[in-house]
Amino acid sequence: MSYPNGPMYFKGIYHLFYQYNPEGALWRDIEWAHSVSRDLINWKSLKSAIFPSEPFDINGCWSGSATVLPAFKPVILYTGIDSQNRQVQNYAIPANLADPLLTEWVKPDNNPIVEPGTEVNASAFRDPSTAWLSFNGQWKTIIGSRSEQTGMAYLYKSRDFLNWTKAEQPLHSVPNTGMWECPDFYPVARFGRFGLDASVTGNWVKHVLKVSLDMTRYEYYTVGKYYPMTDKYVPDNTSADGWNGLRYDYGNFYASKSFYDPMRKRRVLWGWVNESDSVQDDVSKGWAGIQAIPRTVWLDLNGKQLLQWPVMELNRLRWKRVMMIHQKLVKGQNVEIKGITAAQADVEVIFSFSSLDKAEAFDPSWVDAQAVCNQLGSTAQGGVGPFGLLTLASENLEEFTPVFFRIFKAETNHVVLMCSDARSSSLKDGLYKPTFAGFVDIDLSSKKLPLRSLIDHSVIESFGGGGKTCITSRVYPTKAVFEDAHLHVFNNGTEPITVDYLGAWSMRSACVN
Question: Domain Glycosyl hydrolase family 32 N-terminal, which positions (predicted)?
């Protein structure tokens, strides 16, 4: 299972398509697998919707998107690798709109509908986005590409969704970012948590452009202004527009794709979580790659970044809760959270502290959060922190994955570092066990820091500061498995930390068949 493709809501059913090799856990012979759900949690697998069969996609059916046209007509746009190994853009439509599951899809004979012109790199031209309808009746979509090392989103226009014309200028481009994969472009309301259809524009919205960077294998996004008259997107100057930009997730999370859910008036984000073991391990177990828990996304009140939170339906899997209230943690202390299945849990905690006077000095050269976390870790004593959770911990702490905060004092403000550190996650050799980290842009006047972590055997998804900074880690413990997994809260800073509230739930497994 790989990149999510064309998620959509259609007539009461959620659809998720994803890159899939039916022959094994290696990247080849890619087709579009198809699963459906009524609640985003429990899923039923159907037969593949699209698979290589024609000259325009005979060497692979790569990523794309779904758009629901007027009169409830869904269309898939996808990249096909044709018989000349060019990346071309194709479309597919349901064979029977009366079928509520949209089981069968057909690829009309007039494919491809977009071919790379002479000015386009035919080996770097992929992943058409969900289309939006402009004020003048034109449909528009963007396609990821690069020119030399300048990443870009080419803009294409059509009045009938069949005949597409390339705009004179890309929607946006950035030098030295390399190939842009899986571009996603959508509006967000300036105020409120509700989502918007891709075609909404106006002064009361901002736009988000997300790209997946093939060179680095992580993503970044900007928030900015879209000008429909000139078809240009201009990022705000509140974050970097490049490798150091804002990320949905600072961990193992790539090739994400969002969609508008008209049923609940929200925007939902899917992301792919890759393996961190060896290719041989993947071949042995027969599968590789999972989808992260779907998230709701909306614009922070500060207008500078997005907030993310697991979809509300996930709470239905909670079944056994334990609580901790007003637990003080002094330097070097950790307290186990007992009474739940720690290998499959949902944990929400609010940490507090009485003073920031002991916060360590922040070095202005620390622009790379991951490098800072890698240097300082979770065990070295600090001032305010490190404090947080020890997840997937073995009984004697030979294995554990800490998710934690550390607070520093800069010249004019305090800086919050959030980390998810896999270095101690497993005793097994040959694994990729990185430190992941991001800074949390949060007001500390309340002297509180919230954290939520979703723990599911080999994946830990964490949401810091109410969803301001998110980190996903993929880990493979050998001792901290099933009933032998443990969960702790800890503090290794000199400033005492209080667990104001902790709720931890054992989680039922979702139904996937």
Answer: 2-310
